[in-house]
Amino acid sequence: MANDSIVSQIDAEILKLSQARYLVAATGKAAKAVERITKKTSKAKKAAPVTKAAKAKKRRRLSPEARERIAEAQRKRWAAQKSAKA
């Protein structure tokens, strides 16, 4: 009689452990599946065609006069900085 109860307890414990093992293994597989999906979507995003919004945005270019004004202002700042050090 005692042996039967011990065997049934062992069987119950084995069942619990096998269920726990399945859950842990399934969680690992799920994490790997999520990682694979993430990698696939990130590759797809990189290879995605350029949209109209991205095409519509053009670089803003400065006129030569504007470039010269900016350069002159920077030269003035450098000169002021040099005179402050001296």
Summarize the model shown.
The protein is mainly α and 86 residues long. The protein has three helices and no strands.
Please explain how this structure is put together.
With about 90 residues, this protein is mainly alpha-helical. About 85% of the residues lie in helices and about 0% in strands. It has one domain (about 1-45, about 60-85). The protein has helices at about 1-45, 50-55, 65-85. It starts with a helix and ends with a helix.
Features:
86 residues, mainly alpha, 3 helices, 0% strand
Detail the topology: elements first, then pairings.
Blueprint (H helix, E strand, L loop, with lengths): L1 H45 L5 H5 L7 H22 L1
Number of E-type strands:
0
* Percent in helix: over 70%
Gyration radius, rounded: 35 Å
Number of domains: 1
**Strand coverage percent:** under 5%
Q: Helices and strands, in N-to-C order?
A: HHH
Main sheet properties:
none
